[in-house]
Amino acid sequence: MKLKTFAVTAALAWTVCASALNLHAANPLNLLPTPKQLKVEGGQIPLTAESRIVSADPKLKPLAQILSDEILLVTKLKLAVAEGEPKAGDIVLKIDPKIKADADILTVRGQEVLKTRDYAHTIAVTDRIVIEGWDYRAVCEGTTTLLQAIVMQGDTASVPKMTVKDWPYSDYGAIMPDCARSHQPIHVLKIAVETCRLFKIRYLHLHLSDDSAFTFPSTAFPEASSVHHPPVTPYTLDELKDLVAYADARGVTCVPELAGPGHCTALMSGLKGKIGDPKWRTMDVLNPDIYPILDTLVGEMCDVFKSSPYFHIGGDEVEPAFYLPNEHVKKYMKEHNLTGEHTLWLPYGRNMARIVKKHGKKTVMWDGRPVGVPLDRELAKDIILYTWFPLKGRAREAQEFGYTTITVPWDMPPFPEFSMFACNGDVLTPRDKVLGHCRPMWEMDQVALVHSYLPGSPERHERTWGPDSVIEESYHKGRMAQQNARAFSILRPVDFKFEGAMKEGFFSEPITVSMSTIVPGVQIRYRLDGKEPTKDSPLYEKPFKAAESLNIRSALFEKDGRQFGNTSVSKTQEYRSFEQNLTTGKPVKASSVAGEGKNVEVAANANDGWVAFSKLWGAWKPPQWWQVDLEKTCTLDRVHIFPWWEGKRVFKYNIEVSEDEKIWTKVVDAESNNEPAAEKGVLHKFKATPARYVRVNMLKNSVQDAVQMVELRVYEEGK
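and the corresponding structure tokens:
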């Protein structure tokens, strides 16, 4: 037995080693994801200023210009876009519908799930570079291989002579930014689009609605997006149309989601109960009157997201306890002899699938957690399921019910074991109807999305584009790091440099900020407040000092005002000012505090001496008060208050002082304040008054039913 075990272990070890060796032999250029077929011929073709990008089909001219801009960001070479006969040294783009994959690809066509041999592309690098694809998107995917394969030696660029044939294993590879619980401006979503493009991720799933907001701007029901919690901001139609066009031009398709029947209280509140009472935490799925409204919303969204063959209808985390006590629900359950609440949600799935089908799309839905639309054999014909439910056997059960599934595992296996067939402990097979994989990116802010989540996107997609791709031991530090660095040159055309006394993104003394780009002859325009710069924003000319928190956005502009490339997003640099004053470290108390666990917004946070955005006192439902004991009577004439400044919220408050905690004198009246909170806070001066106790009465927050204060500082007269 021991010898047999040793033999099996040795065989497995040899298989892993041999696979790693074969990977290097099959993918010597470290391309990501690994192409199905790659042959490096030996030798290289130089890219020079005389090289051109020739589009053999007029439809490819937008892609040719995009590729020219991207090559400039990688090589400093500006290649002309041309038509006509190509010559040696050129890059040639062609569409050829006769190009076919060597294996079947599961996809959706005309609302039907079927197998195809379409979607393939080829690359031939000889004395020129010829990229041919089955359609526009396939050519796009071929150009990203070229971008990854460019070899830079100093300022000299070349491309290895090679032949490539590649295609997606299945149609659906996606990432999902959360656009409803943290605001993701369009310029950030364009970075997500570019990330998808550069790693052949075919779909960008946009989670546009949740309890926090419904961010789609309905024309028929403009009130639908009226309820939203800052900093989430609904989009405009022009913004979304611009995003879709931007994505389509790069071979990436945006998939919209209208969340329901749960996770949609913002939409329900905006519609003032027309689709259900927000207190129920679910749409009134049994009321037939809600579906014409949803039909209109779906139709409006489909008009904007024309290029998507898919429409996502939500389905996650329905909470039945708040809906079941309604008399019409109890009557329905009795009439239909329902003993459990699970089947109650079938009408939503059936009606929404019908609506989506009417608008020419294929319905996609979460396999809800803990309760959602149940598995149903008839519904399986019309709905593709995101297998999200964290229960072993659930993905397999969905397949047995006849569903086509997309793997979205709640419980992720260790990365080398992951593929699009691994889902919450289930291991599906190529014989199952698995359309692909989506990586959700829940609740991240835009900086985390750009700097943490998006750079991780190629990891899972390597095993979606090719589920049998071998992951080498040094994958993250080697191939993934190399290709992310190449991608960053395109995604981040402006490079930021911060110099000074900094620790983990925080600084307390002024720092020096520098910006640079490799693109010649352009201007760097920037903003420090996290908003997208325009051609009229401040011009960067030389390094400057900063003594405030920085959330820099920079972009390149040509002399005619045209923006070149993406907007670059810096990591947040938080300025924390410390000042020892009369309140620092003194005893405090408050009417209440918000938070739980390690995230309690305790009263002592507001007199620790630091003005730090991430450390504050907070309390729900104003009015609330916060009080400090100075431990001796002082003659006060100034107070500096720092309300929390996220989302430009306006606080109304007053400040009182007392010598004995019995008789209070109001020294600051900001009960009619209309100025948004800012990092610099507000310095209030008043007539010198003896006091030992200082109390802040927070009366109102303009954006939510809570109050927050980062710091309070008070000063003696003449000091």
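(Above: one complete record from the training split.) The two ends are 84 Å apart (CA to CA).
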